[in-house]
Specification:
The chain is mainly beta. The protein is 0% helix and 46% strand. Strands 2, 4, 5, 6, 9, 10 and 11 form a seven-stranded mixed beta sheet that branches. Strands 1-3-8-7 form a four-stranded antiparallel beta sheet, with no helix packed on it. Strand 4 and strand 5 form a beta hairpin. It is globular, with a radius of gyration of 14 Å.
Amino acid sequence: QVQLVESGGGLVQAGGSLRLSCTTPGRAWSTYAMAWFRRAPGKERESVAAIRWRNGVTDYADSVKGRFTISRDPAKNTLYLQMNSLKIEDTAEYLCALDSRGTRVYNTLDSRSYEYWGQGTQVTVSS
C-alpha cells in the first residue's frame, strides 16, 4: 500500500510563503511523476504543479507560474512545493499524488495520471 503524507500547511497572510512537503514512507517503488493538486471549498480539484521524478522536468498551472516551485528529493522520497506571494485565492486543501506507472496517456497535470493520493494539508491565506 502506497502512503503519501503531506505536511506544511497552515495560515499565512497574503503575500507570504509556505513550503509543503509530501513524503512516501515505507518501501521504495518506482515513481514516474508526482504532483500537487488543490481543492477549494465549492470548487473542483485543480492541478497546481507536477514533476517527472527521474529528470526533474516540471509543469505548472498558469495560476501559479512564477510564484510556486515544485521540487523533489529522490533520496528522501519527498516532494516539495514552495509557495511564494500567496494570494487569498490560493486557499485550498493541497494534495500530493504519485504516478508509478508512467503510461503517459495523460499529461502530468491531469489527475487521471495518478493512482495514489495523500489526505491533504490545508492552506489558508488571509488578507
